[in-house]
Write a structure and sequence with these properties.
Blueprint lengths: L12 H4 L8 E11 L5 E11 L3 E5 L6 H9 L7 E9 L2 E2 L5 H4 L7 E4 L13 H12 L4 H14 L5 H5 L8 H13 L5 E5 L7 H18 L2 E5 L3 H7 L2 E6 L2 E7 H6 L4 H13 L2 H4 L5 H9 L1
Helix pairs in contact: 4-5, 11-13
């Protein structure tokens, strides 16, 4: 593509020197463009806001740019990827261009993340409780003994059975659902204001998935947590998100309140997603005939 039409970060340097600005959102992304090593645009002018205590849902097929978008927000883009232009405000601070030292106070207490494969983010040779305790010691400034007590308490609050036993277990000894709770414990131990969950429930069975979604809802209430939830499962987005973005080929093709977008989609691609979900999911057989989703199925039948 012709990258000349994309404003560069350097051209926005004067704006980025402003350390903070008033905002009603804990996370705000404005006209973000991200390029790969071949200068192809992977994220194309995406904008969104996450008000405090709300959940933003992001849906789209594999390769649509969702994960690169989130890694831009987290400041952990892979090598050869770069933000060409735009602005990312986290808790009122523009984070584009921050170095690792400047990012450090924001990671953990400002923003944290959980991902699809928790096992790949945990050290297989260290008990999971000690991994959580180490984060508490370094970032939360706990003593060794206090960190262990707090880690067991966090496991208990996340409904891990026998938290004292789990503390001493290794990742390979735990189920997928338990590993995801451990990763969630590490992500949430410093009580961040924003949590990004990238396909965090995808590999789990339906029962465990439901438990984790209920847990996230509880944490939103108790911690005032703001969520960015990425999932290809429209049922997950419908249950949890207040507002939804539909992304395809790096662009937002439809957005709005979740009920409006998923029950009455306007973009053909969104209509296709909803129709396929209705056609192959249990919703087709369980949703009452008078509901909007049922009416939508009739429209696309």
């Amino acid at each position: 593509m012709n990258t000349a039409v994309i404003p560069t970060i350097a051209s926005q340097q004067e704006d980025r020197h402003v350390e903070s600005r008033p905002t009603d959102s804990v996370l705000s992304v404005e006209d973000l463009w991200v390029l790969n090593g071949q200068n192809d645009a992977i994220v194309k002018g995406i904008s969104f806001e996450v008000p405090q205590g709300s959940t933003l849902g992001i849906v789209g097929e594999s390769g649509s740019g969702k994960t690169i978008l989130l890694k831009s927000v987290l400041g952990v883009l892979p090598p050869h990827f770069k933000v060409a232009s735009g602005r990312i405000d986290l808790l009122g601070t523009d984070v584009l261009g921050l170095n690792d030292k400047s990012w450090r106070p924001l990671r953990g207490k400002g923003i944290s993340a959980i991902f699809q494969d928790p096992g790949s983010y945990l050290n297989p040779s260290i008990p999971v409780g000690k991994q959580l305790a180490e984060v508490l010691r370094i970032r939360g400034k706990f003593s060794r003994r206090a960190a262990k007590r707090e880690a067991i308490s966090i496991f208990d609050r996340l409904y891990l059975r026998s938290p004292e036993l789990v503390y001493h277990q290794y990742p390979f000894e735990l189920s997928g659902g338990m590993l995801q709770r451990v990763l969630m414990a590490i992500a949430l131990c410093l009580e961040p204001e924003v949590l990004i969950a990238d396909e965090a429930t995808t590999a789990l069975d339906v029962t465990v998935q439901a438990e984790l979604l209920d847990l996230l809802k509880d944490l939103k209430t108790t911690l005032g947590l703001s969520l960015v939830l990425v999932s290809h499962d429209l049922a997950v987005i419908t249950q949890t998100a207040d507002y939804v973005l539909v992304i395809r080929d790096g662009e937002v093709i439809e957005e709005g309140p979740t009920e409006q977008v998923l029950h009455f989609p306007k973009a053909p691609y969104t209509q296709l997603l909803v129709n396929e979900h209705a056609q192959y999911g249990l919703d087709k057989f369980l949703v009452p005939a008078s509901s909007p989703l049922s009416q939508l199925e009739e429209v696309h039948a």
